[in-house]
Design goal:
elongated; 282 residues; six-stranded mixed sheet; alpha+beta; single chain
């Protein structure tokens, strides 16, 4: 079976499962727009995030070309693209999914600490964690992490392993450009969660200590958007450890100290923590 036939066969199988697909050329990039659509002459916005109006039958507009229509996938207009295709991609948002693309070992370690387990697909350099649900996509959401959902494409690398979990708030928070406005503005830190009395699901204090250390490092490593990084980090910590009551003032003080070392005020630290609690309903 030729590579062309293999890619097209995979695409048709995915389309039959309701997953919108498109071919990728060498370098894992989509095919460029045709002459009719060049320079977005067909009406797409200059940032290429919104397709059309366009009736072009070719493989245009990157993620927006993804389809589940077998006649389109088998059409003569797509035949040349399949002959040149190096891989198959899909539009996660079009399939009701979000892909957290973890590009290195450090990113995978962060995900294992901060995110709920879900279906996992091995990639050439890391892992794709796939969740049910859609959200805005964001590249470089944090070091080594891209979020691919609406208006994005991901390379198809197989169905993966594990049960698929619902999209958690900790992932949704990665698309935020700034935390929400504070609802409360306390100036002093009180025992944040210790009195909740939940059942601790962590088998060892080492798990919590490692998570706090990784959160401190995430804040310390921030080179820009420190304000947003602090909020996202607080949200990630609370999404993992906020329900069982194992966080203490000492843990939270470590996070606040790391944030203040990057120039954040005590007031902002308190507001960011409060906003994270509110977002997660804690």
């Amino acid at each position: 079976m030729s590579i062309t036939t293999t890619h097209l066969r995979s695409a048709l199988e995915l389309a039959a499962a309701g997953v919108p697909v498109l071919p990728l050329r060498a370098g894992k990039v989509p095919f460029g727009n045709c002459r009719t659509c060049a320079e977005n002459a067909c009406g797409s916005r200059p940032n290429m995030k919104t397709p059309g109006p366009c009736t072009c039958p070719g493989v245009c507009h990157a993620w927006a070309a993804a389809t589940t229509d077998p006649p389109v996938l088998n059409s003569p207009q797509w035949a040349a693209a399949w002959r040149r295709a190096a891989a198959v991609a899909y539009h996660p948002g079009g399939a009701g999914l979000t892909v957290v693309d973890l590009d290195n070992a450090a990113a995978i370690a962060w995900a294992r600490e901060a995110l709920p387990a879900t279906r996992t697909v091995l990639t050439t350099r890391g892992e794709h964690w796939i969740y049910r649900g859609v959200m805005p996509s964001r590249n470089n959401a944090r070091p080594g992490v891209d979020v691919k959902s609406l208006m994005a494409y991901a390379r198809w690398l197989g169905w993966g392993t594990g049960d698929m979990a619902a999209l958690p708030d900790a992932v949704r928070a990665l698309a935020l450009t700034d935390p929400p406005a504070a609802r409360r503005t306390p100036q002093t830190l009180s025992a944040p969660l210790g009195g909740q009395g939940g059942v601790c699901r962590h088998r060892s204090p080492v798990f919590l200590d490692r998570g706090i250390a990784m959160a401190e490092q995430s804040i310390t490593d921030a080179r820009e958007a420190v304000h947003t990084t602090v909020y996202r980090t607080f949200l990630a910590v609370l999404s993992t450890h906020g329900q069982c009551g194992c966080l203490t003032d000492t843990h939270v003080a470590r996070l606040f100290t790391a944030a203040q070392a990057k120039g954040e005020s005590p007031r902002h630290c308190t507001d960011a923590w409060t906003n994270a609690l509110t977002t997660l309903g804690l």
